[in-house]
Amino acid sequence: xxxxxxxxxxxxxxxxxxxxxxxxxxxxxxxxxxxxxxxxxxxxxxxxxxxxxxxxxxxxxxxxxxxxxxxxxxxxxxxxxxxxxxxxxxxxxxxxxxxxxxxxxxxxxxxxxxxxxxxxxxxxxx
Length: 126
Description:
By secondary structure, the chain is mostly beta strands. The protein has no helices and eleven strands.
């Protein structure tokens, strides 16, 4: 088991930047990937980005490509989401989630994740 804690959200003007952090309670060799999802009011939770621990591959939803960067610091058990050129439509609660063990899915489905953080609010004003 692992607990995840997000931080770094806040209010920013359009075009600005924020860096979100997802700190894990412990290091585990069984972590397959950590992803970021977001959920705006009245909308479904949507995939944002994934980083696979084996090999370091990253995946992004099209709307954030070339603006957001997911990375991790193994020594700190922390995954980051650097968000640049923020837009009002990026406003949402951002969640990190982890998959442990073997996984053969696409990482896009929030239903596949068991471990979740509490979320952090990101608000982008126009």
